[in-house]
Amino acid sequence: MKRNFFLLSILNTLAPALLLAQNPKVDILEYEFHLKLNDETDNIEGKTLIDFKYVEESDVLELDFAAEENGKGMQVDSILQNGKSLDFKHSEEKLNISTTAEGEVTIYYHGIPEDGLIISENKYGDRTFFGDNWPNRAHLWLPLIDHPSDKAKVSFHVTAPSKYQVVATGTLQEVTNIDDDNSLYVYASPLELPTKVMVIGVAEFAVQHLGEIAEIPLSTWVYPENKEAGFFDYAQAERILNYFTEKIAPFPFTKLANVQSTTRYGGMENAGNIFYFENSVDGKRSSEFLLAHEIAHQWFGDSASETDWSHLWLSEGFATYFTDLYAEHKYGKSKLDEKLQEERRQVIGFSQTTKTAVIDSSRTDLMELLNPNSYQKGAWVLHMLRRKVGNEDFWKAIQHYYQKYKFSNATSADLQAEFEAAYGEDLDQFFKQWTTQYGQPKIKIDQSFNNGKLKLTIRQLQKNQFEFPLALQLNFATQESKIIEFDISKKKESFEVEVSEKPISIDLDPNTNLLFEEAL
């Protein structure tokens, strides 16, 4: 999911939806969404079949579903189970269905979505329909449990005017001409997914099938007016998909469709069909790293998902750092350093105004989690882990973590356990200071030189104490530079180094391995 450094208009979106909590009493096994769209109005007709079981004894199935208000929202017409009508209460954000029986219920409804399904015109003036669920906007057009912890199988049965093509989560199962005016598209996924990445896209598309890449059907869906540029730009996905498949694991879903859309974000990592903002197509391949970010999400965020919103860095930090790793793979370490240095500047700037940690359970507006802590600082945590445990153990931990939590949910503690297992040492201090503690080291260095000895006093000026390795590059007037490294564990420490002349300057962190700010 997203967003941040290629975010478009996050700060001027609609008012945030009510923060929805996990429902511990029920487990949704499968959703079957039937939707009928038209060109005359924005009203949609829906029928949803939900297969569920109770985790705790209950006589009410509680779902997230936005009720109609001021002309927008959903109206429930009836609910059936085993052919019998069920009583229900639908108000504000909740739909409560009276039933003690597990199994399948069928919900009939209609309405104009306030959000979640974006019915609008694209930049060429053509009508489009795009699901845009993140973070918890799916319930604004679909009855479900709108929380990443409750994953389920899903299918979409979309009836729309025949001039449109439909892309949706899962594999295409059926295309049928219903009559002279409408066609039915059926997509289904046998894999359990969070609702944030279950979507449809309906528009007039030009579609390019690139064949199977790493055994996965890869396709491009763009507006016909910019077909050539779109096919050229999105073809970059082939190299990206190959890299992540080789480094992490086989691609988790049954297809990868890259789709030009009207999403409000730079990109939205919907499972198996990623939606990119309209101007990601420019014929210059300027969105390469955006594609890498969203494709990385297919493993981290879509398949291995955070248990709760407070652990969003397990999605966004991963996608950001794996984009950095792809950049290093393709362009070399200098590009990695360039990206990390920019990300470090963003983290420092954010910390000057917002005193929160990476794991942040304080937010009631989930949009506020789309910040440099979740993205850039999360990426830096992974980079420092890689430097701490070494490249081999880093990839071992990443691969084991993914295999253990694919199509499931994880917390930061789960990730820590996998890194400790691979590294063979306790990492509690590392995770505590970088994910649950505010800020980063603010370092000041004082120096004096006398009789061939350089005395360095290193002070941490921030409130919280950090422990970290610090590399310094000593630059001399008449000899080559020298890199030295210290393990810092106190707010103030002094070291002596034998050198033949006084350095003309000292560079902190010459190899870009530490998240810090330098005190002036």
UniProtKB/TrEMBL annotation:
Keywords assigned: Aminopeptidase, Hydrolase, Metal-binding, Metalloprotease, Protease, Signal, Zinc
Listed GO MF terms: alanyl aminopeptidase activity; metalloaminopeptidase activity; peptide binding; zinc ion binding
SUPFAM superfamilies membership: Leukotriene A4 hydrolase N-terminal domain, Metalloproteases ('zincins'), catalytic domain
Keyword Protease in annotation: yes
Cofactors that this protein relies on: Zn(2+)
Entry GO CC: cytoplasm; extracellular space; membrane
Enzyme class: hydrolase
EC number from the UniProt entry: 3.4.11.2
Aminopeptidase N-like N-terminal domain ranges (all copies): 30-195
Signal peptide: 1-21
Origin superkingdom: Bacteria
Reactions catalysed according to its record: Release of an N-terminal amino acid, Xaa-|-Yaa- from a peptide, amide or arylamide. Xaa is preferably Ala, but may be most amino acids including Pro (slow action). When a terminal hydrophobic residue is followed by a prolyl residue, the two may be released as an intact Xaa-Pro dipeptide
InterPro entries (UniProt xref): Aminopeptidase_N-like_N (IPR045357), Aminopeptidase_N-like_N_sf (IPR042097), Peptidase_M1 (IPR001930), Peptidase_M1_aminopeptidases (IPR050344), Peptidase_M1_dom (IPR014782), Peptidase_M4/M1_CTD_sf (IPR027268)
Keyword check for tRNA processing: no
Gene Ontology biological process terms in this record: peptide catabolic process; proteolysis
Peptidase M1 membrane alanine aminopeptidase domain segment(s): 235-434
Similarity-based family: Belongs to the peptidase M1 family.
Name of the protein described by the UniProt record: Aminopeptidase N
Species of origin: Zunongwangia mangrovi
Lineage of origin: Bacteria, Pseudomonadati, Bacteroidota, Flavobacteriia, Flavobacteriales
